[in-house]
Amino acid sequence: MDHSYRTGNPNGQNGSSQGRSMGRGRPQVPKFFQQPEIEPLPESQNAETKIYCFVDDLFFLAKIQEVARKLNIKVEFVKTGDDLMQKIEQNGNGDKPSLIIFDLNNVNAKPLSTIPKLKKTLKKDTAIIGFLSHLQADLKAKAQDAGCDMVLPRSAFSQNLPQLLRRHAAPEDAELQ
C-alpha cells in the first residue's frame, strides 16, 4: 500500500489549509461583516439617566448593559411604569427620559397598557422603542397603535443598538454641532 501522500505533511493532514483559522480556533470575520466602532460619549460623573429599559430577557439585558458601558451611557432597567415615574422624580431636576426601550414580550411590564400611559405623561419628549420577534406582526401593529414610536425585530434592534443609545444619550448641545 502506498502511503507517500503522508510524507508531505507531518501532521497527517492532506495539505489543504483553506478555510482554516491558522490554528487559532474560530475563523476570522472579514472586515465588511463587522460593525463600525462608534465613538463613546465623554465620561461624566454626574450624568443623569436618559434611557430606561423594560427588559427582563437576560440576553438583551446583558447586551444593552455592555453596549452602554462601552459608550459611557447610563442606562437603568425598570420593572413597571410606576418604578419609572419614581426614578424620574428621584432625579430631582424633572428632566424627562429621552428614550424608553420595551421588550414587547415582557409580560411583567404589560407593554400594551403601559406605553399609552407613558406617552400621555411624557408627551413627545420621550421616544419609545419596542422590539419583538419578527414573526409577531399582530403585536407590532398593537404596539404601534399603543404609541410606540418605533418597533423593531430583535435582530435589527441588536444590530442598531449602539446607534440608538448614542443618539438618545448625547447631550442636546452635542447634537446641534
Round the Cα radius of gyration to an integer and report it: 23 Å
Assign the structural class, choosing from mainly alpha, mainly beta, alpha/beta, alpha+beta, or little secondary structure.
Answer: alpha/beta
In round numbers, the mean pLDDT is: 80
Number of helices: 6
Largest sheet: 5 strands, parallel
* Cross-sheet strand order for the largest sheet: 2-1-3-4-5
- The name of the CATH superfamily of the domain at 48-165 reads Response regulator
Report the strand count. 5
Give the ordered list of helices and strands: EHEHEHEHEHH
Through-space gap between termini: 76 Å
Helix content: 25-40%
- Overall 3D form: extended
Using the coordinates above, name the CATH class of the domain at 48-165.
Answer: Alpha Beta
Which stretches are poorly predicted, pLDDT < 50 over at least 5 residues? 173-177
Approximate strand percentage: 5-15%
Q: Remind me, CATH topology of the domain at 48-165?
A: Rossmann fold
CATH architecture of the domain at 48-165, by name, is 3-Layer(aba) Sandwich
Q: How would you portray this structure in words?
A:
There is one protein chain. With 177 residues, this protein is of the alpha/beta class. It has a domain at 48-165: 3-Layer(aba) Sandwich (Rossmann fold), CATH 3.40.50.2300. The protein has six helices and five strands; from the N terminus they run βαβαβαβαβαα. 22% of the residues are buried.
